C-alpha cells in the first residue's frame, strides 16, 4: 500500500493541477531512491539519534493508570522529541530529501505551528530557505510557535482567506509551490495530499511504532492490547499504527469532536463527513450537499481540519482502526489531568488521545495494556488554555 | 481517439476560425458573481463583442489553482448561493438565447459529489459544451473521459462533452503527449508556473514549449493565465489558436463594470 497510482483501496490518488504533476513524479522517484540508499538512511538515523533525541521513551504512566483504575497506560513520549512533537520526524526526512533533490527552498503549511517549527528547524539544519503558511486564526492562538518559527529564520505568511485555519494554509502553500515548483519542495506535514505524500510521510513517521513495539516487548514481554492516537491529518497515528497493522492489536483514532457533532462545530470527519476530494486526495471530508468544504472547529489547531489522510479512510472502511472523537471539554479535562497526575503537560491535540484513554482504561481489567501516543508537548497551548480559564498571561 | 472531433460546437468554432486565419477569444466569467441574472447579461454582451467560446467558472470553496481575484469572485458567488446544479439549470435557460459554446471551469469535488455520470448527462442535456477541471489530471479522469465520449464503445458516435485538460510549462514531453491525447475541443496551455491572475512573461521559453505541444498534437491550443491587457492577448494570439482571459476580466466587471465593454472590445480586436 498504496498501489502505483497512490491509492489505498478507493482512497488517495493525485488530484492536483498539471503544473505539479512532474514535481510529484520527481518526488516519487527520488523517494524510491533514498529508501534503498544506505548513506541517506545512515545520515537520517544519525540525526534521529544525535539531533532529534530518538528513541523517545515509552513511559509507564503509573499514577494515571492507578487513578483511572483499569488498564496499564503507557505514553509514547513524542513530546520529548526535538522541537516538542513528532512532526520533526517527517520534516527532517523531507528536508534531507529536498536537499538531495537540489531544491533551494522549503514551503509548508502549519496548523498548531508544530509542523511549521519542525520544517523551519529542518531548513535551518540543512541550510535551505523556508516559508511557512499559517491561518490567521491559528497565528493568534499559537503565538508562541509563530515567534519560534521566526527565530528559526523562516518567513511566516498569515493566511486570511476562507476559514483562516489549516485548510486555507494548505491551499496557499500549494499555490506557492505551483508558482515556485522548480526551486521549491513542499513539505506536507501529514499523511495527506497528493501521492506520494501520504505514504512518504507515513514512512518517515513509522519510527514511532517501530520503537514502541520494541519498547513494549522489553517492558512487558508482549504486545499491547490497544493503541490510541489523535487524528487530524493523521500522521502521528499512522506513525504509531504502521508497525502494528499486521498484529492483532486494537487501534483507536481520536478525532476532534469540538463542541459536539450535533452542533456542527467539530472536525470529526468519520462521524460527520462523507467521501470527497480535497487538496490532492480522495478521502473522508466535511462538506455540504453541493461539495463545498465546511468550516471546522476544534480547541486544538492541529486537529481543526476538514479532511483526513486517505489511508485512515481505508482503515476505517476495512474496520482495522476504530475511529471515535473527544470533545473540546474532554480534551481540556485530560490536559489538566495528565499535567497534575504525571507532571506532563500534553499538547491539546494529544490531549484528545489521552481523553480516550480516560474513557477506555477504567472499563478494562488491570492486566490490559494501552499505549497512548503523546504526540506533542503542551507549552504552545499554555497561553490559550489560560485564556479559556479566564487568565490573561502577559508574555 | 478523435472520434467526436469535427462535430462539437467547440471544434466547429476552431475549424471555422482556422479556415479564416483567425484566433479564438475565450473570456472567463464566474457564474453568479454577483448573481446569475448579471452573468446571463454578461454572456450575451461577450457574445455580441465577439467572444468565440465562454468559460463559466462554477464556484468552489477551495479553488487551489486560482489567484486572489477569482477566489474572491468564487466567494461572492457562493455567498449568493450558487451551486453546480444551479449553474447547469442556468445554462439550460441561456440556451434559449445564445448558441455560443460554454465551457464549465470548476474543481473536481463538485462534480464527484454531483456524480460524474449524472453530471455529464445533465450538463450535456443543458447545452454545456465542455469542462475544464484544473485539479483533475487525465490520469484520474478515466471515468469522466469514458462518460463524456472520449473513449469506450465504438458505436458511441456522439460526444456528450468536450474534456479540456491543462498542459503546464513544467510538463515533460511524455506528459504533453498524455494530456494532449485526453483533450478534446482544445488543449489549454497554462502560460506560467503559477495561479490564475499572476504576472505573465511572454518569452522564448513559452514559445518553445508551445512548439513542443504542436509536435505532439494537431488539436487547437489556447493559452491562458495572466493575460491582463490587449498587448498580452495580441502577442499570444500570434502563436496560439486561442487566448483565454480570466482574472483581468473578472476584475474589470467587479471594479469598473462600465468600462468592461470597451475592455472586451480591445481584447477582441487584439486577438
In short:
Chain A has 395 residues and is α/β, with parallel strands linked by helices. Chain A contains 16 helices and 14 strands. Chain A starts with 6 loop residues before the first strand and ends in a 7-residue tail after the last helix.
Structure explained in plain terms:
The complex is a heterodimer of chains A (395) and B (271). Chain A has 395 residues and is an alpha/beta fold. Chain A has helices spanning 21-35, 38-52, 62-68, 87-100, 114-126, 136-141, 143-151, 166-179, 197-205, 207-220, 235-241, 269-272, 310-318, 328-342, 348-360, 382-388, and strands spanning 7-8, 11-15, 58-60, 72-77, 105-110, 129-135, 155-159, 184-186, 226-230, 250-258, 274-278, 280-285, 322-327, 369-374. Chain A has a six-stranded mixed sheet, with helices on both faces. In chain A, helix 10 (207-220) packs across helix 11. Chain A starts with 6 loop residues before the first strand and ends in a 7-residue tail after the last helix. Chain B has 271 residues and is an alpha/beta fold. Chain B has one domain (9-270): TIM Barrel (Alpha-Beta Barrel). Chain B is 46% helix and 13% strand. Chain B has a nine-stranded parallel sheet with strand order 5-4-3-2-1-9-8-7-6. In chain B, helix 4 (84-94) packs parallel to helix 6, helix 6 (116-126) runs parallel beside helix 7 and helix 10 packs parallel to helix 12. Chain B starts with 8 loop residues before the first helix and ends with a helix. The model of chain B is unreliable at 1-6 (pLDDT under 50). The chains are: A alpha/beta (395), B alpha/beta (271). The interface between A and B is large, with 36 and 39 residues.
